[in-house]
Specification:
Largest sheet: 5 strands, antiparallel
Order of helices and strands: HEEEEEEHHHHHHE
Strand content: 5-15%
Distance between the termini: 53 Å
Helix content: 55-70%
Number of domains: 1
């Protein structure tokens, strides 16, 4: 019995993760870039670890590549302005989607934690701990100036870290309850405990499924805006010293 319930505890945490996972970039919207992008107060900075150029800075219609200012046409200056304004207009929505993904994950894990808490006081303590985790993550999102911080893999790792804050506690609670019931020989209590474990995944689905679908649709809505920005970047007339185009992002067919 206790092994069954321990397995159930791990399974439920896995379910909380699975239902809270959200593809916030919708397979990156069919976009690819070798660069990470930082949105600074006075510029956009594209950086990569290998290849040239390694550092591209766009600021108020000007362009600097690997520390050297490039002369741009009036048309390119407008394109650079459009890129900067478009990125700055998009970043708040990216952050809002990341905030909501974290909120959904917190709700899913809280549902599991509350179901197997020892008592109401323990449930409140777990909820408060999760609230602190959520607050810290929200602060990280608010203070971040990088698009690269909030890719799907980063969100998934954050969801896993949220569940991880309570794994040992939840497993301990489930094991304690399972052992108590097993030693008592109370078949009715055993059946109730198993029923609670079997039913919690449905509760998780109820809590997060609708919100997850809505958030994925919201993330999909970013794709046209990101495609437009990539198209503007690819239409720049300016050339590098070796005659190549500046290749900041590509739209994958």
């Amino acid at each position: 019995m206790n092994r069954v319930m321990l397995a159930a505890a791990f399974g439920l945490l896995g379910a909380a993760n699975a239902h809270a996972e959200i593809d916030i970039h919708a397979a990156d919207c069919g976009l690819h870039s070798d660069y990470s992008l930082s949105v600074n107060p006075d510029n956009l900075e594209f950086k990569r670890k290998s290849g040239t150029p390694a550092d591209v800075v766009i600021s108020n219609g000007s362009l600097r590549v690997d520390g050297q200012a490039l002369t741009v046409s009036a048309a390119d200056r407008q394109r650079l302005l459009d890129i900067e304004h478009g990125v700055r207009d998009t970043l708040p929505e990216v952050k809002a989607i990341a905030h909501e993904a974290i909120a959904i994950a917190i709700d899913a894990v809280t549902e599991v934690s509350a179901a197997f808490a020892r008592d109401p006081e323990a449930a409140r303590a777990s909820a408060q701990r999760l609230a602190r985790v959520a607050h810290d993550l929200d602060q990280r999102i608010a203070e971040s100036n990088s698009f690269s911080d909030w890719k799907d893999g980063d969100i998934d790792r954050l969801v896993e870290s949220i569940a991880g804050t309570l794994v040992s506690e939840i497993v301990g609670n489930v094991a304690g309850q399972a052992i108590t019931v097993a030693l008592s020989g109370d078949e009715k209590a055993a059946a109730e405990l198993e029923a609670r474990a079997n039913g919690i995944e449905k509760n998780i689905e109820r809590v997060v499924e609708k919100r997850s679908k809505a958030l994925e649709s919201r993330a999909d809505g970013l794709c046209p805006r990101l495609h437009t920005l990539a198209s503007v970047a690819s239409s720049l007339d300016v050339r590098l010293a070796d005659g190549r185009r500046l290749d900041l992002a590509q739209i994958k067919n």
